Amino acid sequence: MSRLNVWLVQFWRSNRALLIFLPLMFGFRSAIADWMVVPSGSMNPTLMEGDRIWVHKLEFGLRVPFTLIRLTDGELPQRGDIVVFESPANGKTLVKRLIGLPGDRIAMRDEQLYINGVKASYAPLGDDTAPGMVAEFTAVPHQLEREQLGQLDHAVMFLPERGALRSFAPVDVPAGQYLMLGDNRDDSADSRFIGLVPRRLLLGRATCVVVSLNPEHYYLPRTQRTLAQLH
């Protein structure tokens, strides 16, 4: 037996537990469930920079690890889901809220959403609904509101002094595609810019904030956000 073969055998015997564990762990994270660090404020006030969110990938179907090939269909994505997906524009991993389902007609007029001709309703929220938001948004004029889409409601943020795309003509969402928007409507690179998102690019549904570390305060935990459920 060559020296290389002897070394390989010895290396395997010494590290086999680790060598077995690592592929299983990365395979689990790729296809079953994973966590994601929220890098930007595009989903404020629901998600904040420094949030570590739990992403259920199996809900949208079992995939071959490290690929987009699905072995099962899984559950259908629903309006209002917070979804992690690959951008159809550049392949980056993004997290946004699912607004438009296949067959929907979606429009926006002066920040107001219309779904199949029905206008969403809005109600003001106080700043205490988003403790821990970074200064980029708290230091400028901002409005927090409750957006209600049928039976679903969630918080959104508007930045009235920031240049943004606040209106778009009605968009018909075709089969197998979805329209995504950030809850921070005036600071989000979402379907208004990257286009509709095909079903095959959806990676999973974000369900809770595992822990949140504030980048403006030495990454100390935002304790009020630990294990916060997302909706």
Number of domains: 2
Unreliable runs, pLDDT <50, ≥5 residues?
none
Overall CATH architecture of the largest domain:
Ribbon
Residue-averaged pLDDT: 89
Q: First CA to last CA: what distance?
A: 60 Å
The class by helix and strand makeup works out as alpha+beta
CATH topology of the largest domain: Umud Fragment, subunit A
Q: Could you tell me the radius of gyration in angstroms? A: 21 Å
Element order, helices and strands? HEEEEEEEEHEEEEHEEEE
Tell how many strands the DSSP assignment holds.
Answer: 16
The largest pleated sheet is described as: 9 strands, antiparallel
Beta fraction: 35-45%
Overall 3D shape: globular
What quaternary form is this?
Answer: single chain
